Amino acid sequence: xxxxxxxxxxxxxxxxKILILALFVFALLWFFPIGRNKETLKNYDNRTFxxxxxxxxxxxxxxxxxxxxxKKVSEKAxxxxxxxxxxxxxxxxxxxNNKECNTKNSYVEITHLGDEYALxxxxxxxxxxxxxxxxxxxxxxxxxxxVEQPPKEEEKPSKPEKPSTPSTPTKKTKTVTEYEYVKxxxxxxxxxxxxxxxxxxxxxxxxxxxxxxxxxxxxxxSNWIASDSxxxxxxxxxxxxxxxxATAEEDCYYTGWRYEGVLPPSLYPKYDTDTTAYTFVDxxxxxxxxxxxxxxxxxxxxCSTTYKYKTREVTYTDWVDAIPTGYEKFKTKTVYSYSxxxxxxxxxxxxxxxxxxxxxxxxxxxxxxxx
Length: 371
Hints:
This protein is an alpha+beta fold. It folds into 3 domains: 1-32; 36-143 and 159-171, no CATH class; 218-330, no CATH class. Helix content is 17%, strand content 40%. It has 3 helices and 16 strands. It has a 5-stranded antiparallel β-sheet with strand order 14-6-15-5-16, with no helix packed on it. The protein has a 4-stranded antiparallel β-sheet with strand order 1-2-3-4. The longest helix has 30 residues, at 2-31. The protein is rod-shaped and about 220 Å long. The two termini are 80 Å apart. The relative contact order is 0.17.
C-alpha cells in the first residue's frame, strides 16, 4: 500500500503544472489578442492626430487677437505650421509613428465672415491629412496681452531641448450648417479726363464741369523797319489781331535849271510851274495884236519812295482754368468729366439664419467644427 501512494503524487504534480501553464497561455491571449493589434495601433494614431490638430487650433486662437484678425469682410490671414514653430506659438510634435508632420503644407487660416470669424486648421502628416473649422464670435476673441519683459540676464549656452509631443485634452466635434448670403455693393469710378462731350446724368452717371480759357497777350509795336517793297497789313493765324502795320514815304528833289532860249512871240502871257520858268524880254504891237516875248528855263523833279513797317508779338496760352497775369481772355469753352457706378456681388457663409444687409441664396453646406 505504501508503494501505490508514492506513485499517485507525481501524477498529481504533473496535472497541476499543466493546469497552471494553460491558465498562463489563456491570460496571454486575453491581454494581448493578436487579431486586435492593428486596430489598436490605428486608434492610437488617430488620437495623436486629433491632439496635434487641437494644439494648432489653441495656439492660433491665442495668437489671433482682436488686433491681429482681418478687419474687412472676406479678408483672410494665415500662417504655416513652420511659421507657428518659428514664432514659438507651440513646440514641435510627431504623429503616431513618431514622425514629424509636414510643416510647410500644414497651416491655420482665419476668415472674416461679417458677424463672425471662421478658423480653419489643416494638418498634413505622412499617413493622414484633415482639417477642422471653428466659428468664433468677435466678442470672444483673445484680448491683446501686455507682457512685461524681465531684465535681461547674461546668456549662457544651453543644450537644445528635444521636441516633445504636447499633451492636450481631446476635443469633441460637431457638424454645423452654413448658409450662403449675397449682397450688392456699388462703387463709383474715378472721374474721367476732361472732354467737351456733354452727357446727361442718371443713377449710374455723375458729371462735373468747369470753364476753360485761352488767353492772349499783345506786345508793343516795334520801331519802323525799312523795306524796298510795299508791305501791306497782316494778321496772325487767328485772323483777329493785327501783327503788322505798313506805311510809305516819298522823297523828291529838283535838278538844276536849264536855259531853253527865247520863245516865239506869244499872244498870251506865260506863267511859271515847278519845272518851267519864264523871263519876260520884250513885247511889240503890230497894229492888231500885242505880242509877248519870253526866255524859257526848265528843270526835272525826281522822287524815290521808301517803304516802312512795324511789328508786334501776339502770344496765346493753351486751354487753362485761369487766365495768367498779363493776358486777356480770347476764347472760352465748357468741359466735362464723368464718373460711372459699378455694382458687384459679394458672397459670404454664416451659421446664422439671417444677416442684416445680406440676402440668403438658398444654398447650404455642412462643416465639422470643434465644440
